[in-house]
Amino acid sequence: MVKIRLQVQDELTKNVVDTPRRSELRIVKNLGVVDLYFPAYAYLKKDWFGEFPTKSLGIAQLLTAGAIAGMPAAYLTTTCDVTKTRPQV
After folding, report:
1. Which GO molecular function annotation, any one, does this entry have (predicted)?
2. Rounded CA separation 34/42 (Å)
C-alpha cells in the first residue's frame, strides 16, 4: 500500500501547485496499523500454530505461516504486477 501511494502521488498532484511530496512515514501514519496488518499471517500464527502472549513460535513455524500466507498473494498479484511493470521499463 505504501509503495503504491508513493508511485501514484505525482500523477494525482500533477495539476496542483506547491503540493508537498509525501514521505513513507507520513503515509504509514495516515494508513494506521490496521491497514498495515497481515491478517492471514496473524490468523495462521494464532489459530494454526497456537501462538499466544505466553507461547512464542519457533522459526520454522513462523516461516511456514509466512509462506502459506504469502503464496496466494503472490499467485494472485504476479500477473498484474508484471503487466504493470513491463510498460514502465
Report:
1. L-glutamate transmembrane transporter activity
2. 12
